[in-house]
């Protein structure tokens, strides 16, 4: 067998394997959307869930998911940016930084249920936050922080060293060069990674079962005072998210239309994650074009 024929066979095998994987994912996506989209309506997206009778929605769970995501990103984004800047621009290559990077790699590969149990012991029990949005947001921060830090560091390292030299040659300090030259150049990759991480966190369930809880109390949307117990913005209330709601319905749901609610909620979750991915690409491309002037 000559080299050209071997190359064609290997290429064909790779195309077939890639096609099979894409086909499996496409069929799975089509199955979820085909079964769930017919159950989605404005009432379904805004109405509170029912415990014993049919006709309920996912309004509270959907709001809880976005609120938890907002709080976790609000906490983890500045920390990850400063940590990524330090590791990329200031950390010297020694044993300590190697340990830090190894720890980040290990933490980024932890199962979410382990992060959930850690959050339960540290935030819910030891810190006294109980099953609450705050406990869930802090657990999601632990879950998401290593991934965001690595994303920021990689984005900063992808900037050519000549950019740094140009900033320093203009009389800028090292810190000013990082802030005004390196960080804007790496911004498209950082934003894309942030949005993709947000989509990953949005569908998280295991880490929130033990921290945010499995109940969704009725909310008073006329009172947005975060210190009011029934306020949607109260960070100390328990908050069942959309992913946890899907798990709960399929494991112990007794409502007559449990199958329909589960299918509709799964479709909403899939659509939300797809929108996060599309948004990441659109914003990343737009910021890149603006930064490069293309």
Automatic annotation (TrEMBL):
Residues 62-280 form the ABC transmembrane type-1 domain. InterPro entries: MetI-like, MetI-like_sf, Phosphate_PstA. One of its GO terms (biological process) is phosphate ion transmembrane transport. Gene3D superfamilies: MetI-like. Its main location: membrane. It is a multi-pass membrane protein. SUPFAM superfamilies: MetI-like. GO terms for cellular component: plasma membrane. Coiled coil: none annotated. It is found in: Cell membrane. The chain crosses the membrane at residues 12-34, 66-87, 99-123, 258-280. Belongs to the binding-protein-dependent transport system permease family. CysTW subfamily. This is Phosphate transport system permease protein PstA.
């Amino acid at each position: 067998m000559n080299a050209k024929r071997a190359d064609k066979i290997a290429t064909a095998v790779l195309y077939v394997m890639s096609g099979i994987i894409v086909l499996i994912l496409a069929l799975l996506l089509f199955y979820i959307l085909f079964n769930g989209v017919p159950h989605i309506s404005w009432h379904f997206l805004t109405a509170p869930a029912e415990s014993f009778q049919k006709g309920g929605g996912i309004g509270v769970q959907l709001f809880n998911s976005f609120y938890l995501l907002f709080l976790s990103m609000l906490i983890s984004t500045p920390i990850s940016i400063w940590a990524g800047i330090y590791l990329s621009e200031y950390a010297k290559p020694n044993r300590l930084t190697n340990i830090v990077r190894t720890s980040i790699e290990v933490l980024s590969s932890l199962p979410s249920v382990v992060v959930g149990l850690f959050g339960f012991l540290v935030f819910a029990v030891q810190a006294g936050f109980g099953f609450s949005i705050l406990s869930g947001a802090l657990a999601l921060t632990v879950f998401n922080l290593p991934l965001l830090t690595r994303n920021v560091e990689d984005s900063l390292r992808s900037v050519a060293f000549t950019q740094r030299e140009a900033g320093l040659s203009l009389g800028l300090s090292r810190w000013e060069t990082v802030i005004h030259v390196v960080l804007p150049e790496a911004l498209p990759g950082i934003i894309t990674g942030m949005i993709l991480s947000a989509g990953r966190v949005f569908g998280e369930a295991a880490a929130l079962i033990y921290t945010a809880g499995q109940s969704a109390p009725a909310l008073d949307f006329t009172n947005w005072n975060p210190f009011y117990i029934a306020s949607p913005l109260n960070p100390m209330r328990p908050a069942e998210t959309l992913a946890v709601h899907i798990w709960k319905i399929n494991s112990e749901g007794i409502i007559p239309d449990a199958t329909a609610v589960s299918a509709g909620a799964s479709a909403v979750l899939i659509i939300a994650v797809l929108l996060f991915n599309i948004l990441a690409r659109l914003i990343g491309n737009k910021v890149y074009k603006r930064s490069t002037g293309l």
